[in-house]
What does this fold into?
Amino acid sequence: MTHIVEIRDPAERSRIAEVVLRDLPEWFGLEAETAAYIKAAAELPTFAVKPQDAFLCLKQHTPWAAEIYVMGVRREQHRRGLGRSLVAAAEAWCRDRGIRYLHVKTLGPSRPSRGYDATRAFYEAVGFVALEELHGLWDEDNPAVILVKDVRLGFSVMPIEGLPELRAGDDLAALIAERTGLQDGDVLVVAQKAVSKIEGRVVALADVEPSGRARELAGEEADPRRIQVILDEAVELVRVRPPLLIARTRQGYVCGSAGVDASNAPEPETVVLLPVDPDASAARLREELRERTGVDVGVIVTDSFGRPWRAATTDVAIGAAGVEVVRDLAGERDPTGYELHSTRIAVADEIAGAAQLVFGKLDRVPVAVIRGLDVRGDARAADLVIPPETDLFR
Amino acid sequence: MTHIVEIRDPAERSRIAEVVLRDLPEWFGLEAETAAYIKAAAELPTFAVKPQDAFLCLKQHTPWAAEIYVMGVRREQHRRGLGRSLVAAAEAWCRDRGIRYLHVKTLGPSRPSRGYDATRAFYEAVGFVALEELHGLWDEDNPAVILVKDVRLGFSVMPIEGLPELRAGDDLAALIAERTGLQDGDVLVVAQKAVSKIEGRVVALADVEPSGRARELAGEEADPRRIQVILDEAVELVRVRPPLLIARTRQGYVCGSAGVDASNAPEPETVVLLPVDPDASAARLREELRERTGVDVGVIVTDSFGRPWRAATTDVAIGAAGVEVVRDLAGERDPTGYELHSTRIAVADEIAGAAQLVFGKLDRVPVAVIRGLDVRGDARAADLVIPPETDLFR
It folds into this structure.
């Protein structure tokens, strides 16, 4: 692992800058500019890899923005991750000071240069985004490009807007790919309704003949045809307070109305069922997105479930592909040495809930992208179904 | 509401640019530059407020970045929200194309100007952040400042790193304020352990004398002193499978071990209890943060709870202040007109789960900031405790 140190002595800052920059004539071949960098380094926050292999100087411009003012890695040390480690140290320095954006200016792409092409590729590889080539900032031969990176930690939850009302057979992967630029490691969260609709899991109540049991449970308040659909989807009625039913579904989930829902149905007098196999639905969408975009994302299919002891619903995962579903900390130890022998975290459910916060219920935003969360894995949401015999909470 | 239109006719673009810019000599007093803007507008994506009140032209530089190339609002229309609406339209245009950053260059602060001071204040008010003053990009008298905004929708979840191990009496508000720049509308999520520790809710097992009942429940496997602490915190044992206990706590929550936890305790042979009144703890922290930073944030205190029917734990809200806890959609209608008569969403629990994803369990990151989610309110987490008689799921 590369060991990064912050250099606090002004003379040492300039010394390491000089040794490194003199080793890089392809980038720092103009004597006046190079001398200016060496001089400026003395007064700037500076990180280095010792003895004199690489360095990076920062310049804070505003309370929220700092710049990588100059950076260099000695030629023989290239391609060993030193630059990446220096940038990581610079980002941590920024975060400690509440700085949100780190930026850098380098030679722009309109002037071809093998060295600077590699420099820009490096910055883009560590997450910088080019804003604009600034002609006239330096001289006419040397256009500057400014690149920026948001250095905050954590993750983002972004709705995908503008999806049409979905119908059976719609190509959801195509509709999503058109509306957003996915990246490797993103998690795409899709509300169950969207998946069920494209899979044709919609029942017209006019086609349902309610049984006597359904009529009895429906009483005066409910539509017996809807109750019949619930009975058809349920393998077990877990709680019954007519006309409200909590059921275990064929998929193993315990939820209100066996997941049968009339809200957000494509038309009045229809109800939407859960996907037949939501894990398979997630895997299919993941594969279609990979074929279409070349990008490897995780997919979680969610639904809003009630739960005992607590009011209201939260969204949980009912289908998953390419993601960690349960994070098991068994055997790991906390900082005092206490072994966490029963700490298992339902990360897929927490991701589902986070996505719900941008779904809303009334608008048509059934898809969100989670970016910046490392939850790659290969578990299924079915792993969240607890075997009744081991369910202490039940 | 301001009606924004996209202008597609090149001549009309230049015409509206000319009318507006000629009305703003304080900003556009240099004939050559103004003529260049009017000419350039013809070829740029342009939004306007009709008839000829305001306009904004965009220039896309890279697949991920575009610039507000020129923008103007006629003087008599100032301070009516036209500029804000134009920027919102520009952001939507960017999002539709997968563009992440919108930037703008304007006169920098080192050259005083009442007009441009207002311009920069406007951009900052709509979320732009100044990166750097670029001397030499324009002419020596006119330093350019470049400001940038991340136009993606949705919200961010950011861990606060570097908090020390917490002790009774620590000033958590001060420790948080030192480590992050909070903004109005942020939600600060704090793991229960952090709150309990500063409130001194830690019990040394050496001081506990277990009762006969505690010894019986502990059996051979568990520490009877820990069981005694659980019994002391419980008002009702909801499920008992010795030595595992699910209890209703004094606060009304149903959870494993009545919330008594040995992991992440400050020292071995100690256990941490839930805060006495987590809603009050949240309100206190909120008030202390307001006093210290002047910023109005929401606060949610969380804990990891198991639940029936589903494996593993999710973090839920046990304390809240200044936030919406349950979003009630009763009476609202979905797009087909179906009335959502029972859709209540436990947004505070979903926020708690989102924050857990950056907490981890083994490291000391017990605080996260949620930014970009509009959940201001004044509910309490106690509202999430469901009255047993209405709990169909129970």
In short: Chain A has ten helices and 19 strands. Chain A has three domains: 4-150, 156-201+275-394, 202-274. Chain A touches chain B through 102 residues (CB under 8 Å). The longest strand of chain A covers residues 310-321.
